[in-house]
Amino acid sequence: MVAIGDDGDDPYAPFVSRVVASWPDARLRQTIEGTLVFADVSGFTALSERLAKRGKVGAEMLTDLLDAAFNRLLDVAYARGGDLLAFGGDALCLFFSETGHELRAADAALQLQRHLRHRTPAHAAIGRVSLGMSIGAETGPIEFLRAGSAPFEHLALGPTVTATLGFEGAANRGEVVIGPRLASKLPNNVMDAREGHTYLERVAPSAARPELHRCL
Fold it and tell me: Is residue 210 in a domain?
């Protein structure tokens, strides 16, 4: 499960994010305006402890569930023009850019919450599965830094990244907390302000969803 890029003639393009695939060779850093979505899935630790009692079979069942759950979530993001920047444990860091990125990111954030609850054959094989997700999102300039030597590390930095992580930390299970810049780009009737934060409550009007290559 990896981010996707422009196929072109590069055999590795399907396995990297579009930010990396289109990176100008001479640059060490670049700034791109967009919307960042950080989604942290909870419940896998307790589930892994339960399945550990089944030994190797339990480990295989957990792997199948991880694949099923995250493939479904990535399908949601990719269908709305999202780009997977990184996995962070049980979390996804997604980046949306180009025209309409605010609406597409907001739509994706809510759909991530809904699709996490969908059961798959992997869920049925395990039985009771209780997974949840907290999400933070914000719009703004994001600085991307190329570090090290080939193979390079590509890092997302800056205030927008810090703010997004903070909003995810403020979100409870099942909630989407968004920042003021993203909120200013969305219709008022899809949000609810309470307890010092803005919560995304309903599906934002979907912008055009570009056709993208799917991950392999």
Answer: no
